[in-house]
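To whoever is on call:

I kicked off a structure prediction for a single chain this morning and the downstream step that reads the tokens threw a length-mismatch warning. I double-checked the sequence; it's 443 residues and nothing unusual in it as far as I can see. Pasting both halves so you can look.
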Amino acid sequence: MNPRVAIRRDQAQSTSSGAPVVTWRSWLVWGIAALFYLTGFYQRVSPAVMTSELMRDFGLGAKSLGSFSAFYFYFYVAMQVPVGVLIDSWGARKLLFWGALSAAAGTFLFGATSNFALACAGRAIVGGATAAGWLVLLKLATHWFPARRFAMLSGLGLFFGNVGALFAQVPLRLLIERFGWRNVVLCSSVILVGVCVAVWLAVQNDPSEAGLESHAPAVLRTERRTMRALGAGFRKVFAYRNTWFIFFAQGGIVGPILAFTGLWGTPFLAVRYGLPPARAAAVCSVMIVCWAVASPISGALSDRIGRRKPLYLLGAMGSAAGWIVMFYVNSLPLALFIAVAALTSFASGAVVLGFAYAKESVPVEFLGTISGAINIGNMIGPMLLQPGIGQMLDRNWAGQMTKGVRLYDLQAYRAAFVLVVCWAVASCVLIAVTTETFCRPRA
């Protein structure tokens, strides 16, 4: 079909009804951004299935491995404020293109080097580059879709991210065993170059650039923020009490599941149940699938009942209880462990409600700012827990080694996972004291 004909047809659809409508073009633009977010999630958790290879090839202990994985999160968090400015000054399309290209470069560096410092640098580049993924996804959803679909699209976006995390479990482990971890990582960089091409060819910042009507409020279509203005915006959104509670609560829900499935779950399951890496990754895959499925369900159900707090709190409580059972109930059969892990992950899907909940707790002009702030809250969880667990493991290491890799016993893991449980329980308390928005802007 001729692109100009398609544009005119879409424009006729939007104007004949008197209101902007969702077209195939909306889903195409949003879908490419979701694909980039998928690759970022994949990068986030991929070290989990190559822990032995990384520890052997770079000569790492648990603390160093945790720090290596956390380099992604350090720079992901550090880039949230600059990304908030760039998404306004550059636009979503340009930011998405350069983010994908930079992520490809960082991935190539990680896969090609034998130097640990350069590997950390590659991991840092990937983290900083993929920091654009979630904010761009939300930005494009705001412009290309009506506001009533925001929570559903947030959940669907997290679903896409979890699909990426799913690829980084059993499929990635099997590829590593067949081709070696370096070759697989280098291939990942090529895929990211493909995302760059798709962005260049198909993504546009706003429907108006395709001759369609925008769904975004006028203030968001015209606003251009400087770094100073965005910093002031951050101070203003934290003047609203819900922001503080949701910010720290998010880390206590996201942090445990990403710390477990993204790094420490596979070696823990090897110690507790004697599972080989591929089978341990399969257990983590079950968790990721449940998390992925729960996210859009939570968003849609919350929209339907017209409330945020009950589902959000119920999810946090289910998550906290699940981690306690998984780590500290003795004589837990593997089948029952997997069932509890699945329920814990499903409960964690309620974390997606934090974005809509926080968005409704501040004025509309702070949409980008509050999304960035809550995304930082998400990532401080794994950013602190992954190296923190590694440090606790090294502190409780009994001195065992095999083939140059440190071995940690079950008691060491249980001591380390206290960090997970404490933050998960704290999240329940924080959510309990939030103020319900009833799915409407309160400010």
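Update from on-call: the warning came from a stale cache, not from the record. Cleared it. Sanity check on the structure: Residues 1-17 have pLDDT under 50 and may be disordered.
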